[in-house]
Amino acid sequence: MIATKDITPNNSWDGHINEAGLGIIKAFEGFAPTPYLCPANRWTIGFGSTWDSKGRAVTGSHLPVTRDEAGRLLAREVRHVEGAINKLVKSELTENMFSAIASLVYNIGTGNFQRSTLKMKLNRGEYENAADEFGKWRKAGGRILKGLVRRRAQERELFLTDV
Q1: What are the distances in angstroms from CA 96 to CA 17, 19, 21, 52, 146?
Q2: DSSP label of 64
Q3: Range with the poorest average pLDDT among 6-10, 50-54, 80-84
Q4: Mean pLDDT in residue range 109-131
Q5: What is the per-residue pLDDT for 13?
Q6: 3-state SS of the chain: helix, strand, coil percent to 5?
Q7: How big is the CA angle at 129 (ends 104 and 127), to the nearest 5 degrees?
Q8: For 11-70, what is each residue's pLDDT tens digit?
């Protein structure tokens, strides 16, 4: 069982998503140079970005992006996600916990995370119960998607992995 006292800060961690968390995002979002409607019926481009470089929602008429541009869009949205996590989660998190949550929030959105039972359990220090919430976020467009089931399993595994 993970208890609050078992959470030890990693003094070398810079407080941002790590490569493992970014890897989950990139692997499951994939790269798309042109806009497409994701299973949740939202216009997306690059590595799952729903906002362009000017902060406007992606539309079907957005111009294609290069991998470099997609990387910058990803970094921009990840910074937003990190800020939301830092604001909403008051309990101590390890680097891997933070990174797993960042991947989840990148996918489900900050508003959904703000209202989530996962966030509530984190803030109560119920880390194992919070880990069990990842699997509940497996639907898009009203149906369970195999890709989301696999993604949540990887995020949960990362969340429970010691740094």
Answers
A1: 8, 10, 8, 28, 23
A2: P
A3: 6-10
A4: 97
A5: 82
A6: 50, 10, 40
A7: 75
A8: 578 889 999 999 999 999 999 999 999 998 999 999 999 999 999 999 999 999 999 999
Helix/strand/coil for 65: coil
- State the average pLDDT for the chain: 93
Place of tokens 């890709």: 147
Q: How much of the chain exceeds pLDDT 90, in percent? A: 88
Please name the residues in contact with 45: beta carbons below 8 A apart, sequence gap of 6 or more: 32, 33, 34, 35, 36, 52, 58, 62, 64, 65, 70, 73
Helix, coil or strand: residue 71 = helix
Which DSSP letter does residue 18 get?
-
At a CB cut-off of 8 Å and minimum separation 6, what does 116 contact? 108, 133
Strands 139-140 and 143-144: antiparallel
Q: Catalytic residue positions?
A: 29, 38
Residue type, 84: A
Q: Which amino acid is at 91?
A: S
Structure tokens at 72: 């910058």
